[in-house]
Design brief:
Length: 643
């Protein structure tokens, strides 16, 4: 391979062009439609450089060879004609329909979702050819949409028989022999605070006040690693899954429900083993001392965010009466959480107020409502406590120089900040940079200034796009977004593998009096590196699937709203149209044809659009009236037109 040729992974685009990602290089190589040489999304390819990188331009290349096809099965919709059929892939980046001969149809009917094995890849003018290996169901059948997504991403939605058997063989009661080796907290008032429909309760908290006026915060996390032993079938399966995936009406869990809803769930009134992080915190929100212990707890009361909100904010007499014994406890929690939040904000933690969607499904899984997910300070109480425990654990194990998995969020690139500032300048804001360095506080100040303004959402979204993506690493590199030098994920070992892995590290250090042999440390270092990488990859897949499930359900909800009118806000402007977000978080695209009968001039720096004749200027954050033109869960697309 000469210097101008590279090996990489081809990422297709539904318009036919693509990009090649080279390992170890940040910038990808652009490949025009004419130069893809039949490469499809996910293929390993050799790419030859045609144009070098300029100031404004990507490098451009040409695929000279497809060295390996990574996709051999795809999910799509079957379309039947008299003598043959073809499948339209759900993955629009595939850019090719798949021809199905009569003998390879497997009795599939028109408009059924199917799984196809590719037997011939596209070549020249010839389409790909495939064989149907599974029929999922008709596109309008209940649950077929989400099941198709599960199949498309090859998600492990069933646990192997041996894993289930191992989970069932675990004792449903705690082992009395282990109690003397643990800190006994069964007499403490300890609470879980979750959503009403949560089933796996892996964190519980208490707050006390000392005579000196400091706070004692106890964060108790289910001791999952006590049950999921290293190298067991359960552990191997958890490594493969990496994370639980949430798709509205179904969860693909990391651990079987026998554990996650059973002995590892901190259920009210039941004795449970935990790992407790107990912190003393002063009036400024600073952790002045901390201790980590293996413990035994018994949750006093299961509380919901809604009830805590009703007690603290709405002063609901009925709920207060029901929880009379514990109201003072909740007030202390509220007090401490506000102190912690204030300290965090002072340090420059970024409060990106991007609303989440709450999608309501009927009994058969059809979307019947979409609204903004309302967060209250009750959610914030738990978030502040978990953040504090995660930081405390990460800092302690960093200074122990222990093998560990950190949650890393590096500083954004300076070029991206320059680009962002070009846009923010038009809105009267600026991210301050000092000596080629940037601090979270600079971003936090802009977010604070934009609060309550029409452009608040826009500023939040643009900052979010400028920031790097958080990931797992075996090296500590700090967390820019929460303005923290040390951060890890310790609080959800039921649903995230990095948390489970560091529970195992903590348990080993506690068991051996913080004195591990060099060989053990090296062994764990290797594992930390490997699991950080695989967990980051699984997290990407989970986020993608969850986002697509949401897109499917939002499009389904809007299908019978075609022709209806709404007011929305312009959320982004591109060279092919304007994205508009409605109050209920549904987003749709207005293409230029549906914006007005004229030519539009797109200003990439300012992200604005101007009608050449009317001189009408469209900016991000502008209100706009729209009519729903098209919505289809099949294509996962919603189109609007300007009213």
């Amino acid at each position: 391979m000469n210097l101008e040729e590279y090996q990489g992974i081809f990422r297709g685009n539904e318009k036919g062009f693509g990009f090649v990602k080279i390992e170890g290089q940040e910038n990808e190589i652009y490949v025009s439609r004419a130069n893809t040489k039949d490469a499809i999304d996910g293929d390993e390819v050799i790419v030859k450089i045609l144009k070098k990188e300029g100031k404004e331009k990507h490098r451009e290349g040409k695929v000279t060879k497809v060295t390996k096809h990574n996709l051999d099965t795809i999910v799509g919709t079957f379309k039947k004609s008299k003598k043959f059929g073809f499948v339209i892939p759900d993955n629009k980046k595939m850019n090719t329909d798949i021809y199905i001969s009569k003998k390879n149809m497997k009795k599939a009917k028109n408009n059924q979702k199917v799984v196809v094995k590719i037997i011939k890849f596209p070549s020249g003018n010839k389409s790909a050819e495939g064989k149907i290996i599974e029929i999922i169901g008709h596109i309008d059948e209940a649950g077929v949409d989400i099941l198709s997504l599960v199949k498309e991403y090859n998600l492990p939605y069933e646990f192997p028989k041996l894993v289930i058997e191992e989970a069932r063989s675990i004792n449903k009661l705690i082992d009395k022999k282990d109690i003397p080796h643990r800190l006994d907290l069964r007499e403490k008032e300890i609470f879980t605070i979750d959503g009403e429909d949560a089933k796996d309760l892996d964190d519980a908290v208490y707050v006390e006040k000392t005579k000196q006026g400091t706070y004692i915060l106890g964060v108790h996390i289910a001791d999952v690693s006590y049950y999921v032993k290293e190298g067991s079938m359960l552990d191997k399966e958890a490594i493969i899954r990496g994370t639980s995936i949430y798709m509205m009406d179904r969860v693909i869990p990391m651990l079987p429900k026998e554990l996650s809803n059973g002995i590892c769930s901190l259920n009210q009134g039941e004795e449970r083993f935990a790992i407790s992080c107990i912190m003393e915190i002063d009036n400024e929100g600073k952790v002045i001392s901390s201790d980590i212990k293996k413990s035994i707890i018994k949750v006093t009361k299961r509380m919901s965010y809604t009830d805590i909100y009703k007690i603290l904010e709405e002063k609901d007499e009925k709920i207060i009466k029901e929880n009379k014994k514990y109201v003072e406890h909740f007030k202390r929690m509220d007090e401490l959480a506000r102190i912690l939040k204030k300290r965090r904000e002072k340090a420059g933690s970024l409060n990106l107020d991007i609303p989440e969607s709450k999608i309501i499904l009927d009994h058969s899984g059809v979307a019947i409502d979409v609204k903004k997910y309302e967060l209250t300070f009750a959610n914030e109480i738990i978030e502040q406590f978990m953040l504090t425990a995660n930081e405390t654990i990460a800092e302690k194990f960093y200074w122990l120089n222990a093998p560990f998995i950190y949650r890393v969020h590096e500083n954004p690139d300076m070029e991206k900040i320059t680009e962002l500032n070009k846009f923010l300048f038009n809105l009267g804001y600026k991210i301050k940079v000092s000596k080629d360095n940037v601090y979270p506080k600079s971003f936090a100040e802009v977010l604070e200034k934009s609060k309550g303004t029409p452009e608040e959402r826009v500023v939040s979204n643009l900052i979010l796009r400028t920031l790097k993506v958080a990931r797992y690493e075996s090296e500590n590199k700090g967390h820019f977004g929460i303005a923290s030098k040390y951060y890890c994920h310790f609080t959800s070992p039921i649903r995230r593998y990095p948390d489970l892995f560091i529970h195992r590290i903590i348990s080993e250090y506690l068991k051996k009096g913080y004195n591990l042999k060099e060989k053990e440390i090296e062994d764990y270092r290797e594992k930390a590196k490997k699991y950080a990488e695989t967990s980051s990859e699984r997290e990407k897949v989970a986020q993608k699937v969850e986002r697509e499930a949401e897109d499917i359900k939002k499009a389904e909800y809007m299908q019978d709203k075609v022709g209806e009118m709404y007011e929305g806000i312009i959320s982004s402007i591109t060279s092919f149209g304007v994205y508009v977000e409605l109050e209920n978080t549904v987003e749709g695209l207005i293409r230029f044809d549906d914006l007005g009968n004229e030519y539009f001039i797109y200003d990439e720096n300012r992200k604005t659009l101007m009608g050449e004749r009317s001189k009408k200027l469209y900016k991000i954050g502008d209100k706009i009236n729209i009519k729903v033109k098209y919505a289809s869960k099949e294509t996962r697309r919603i189109d609007f037109e300007k009213v």
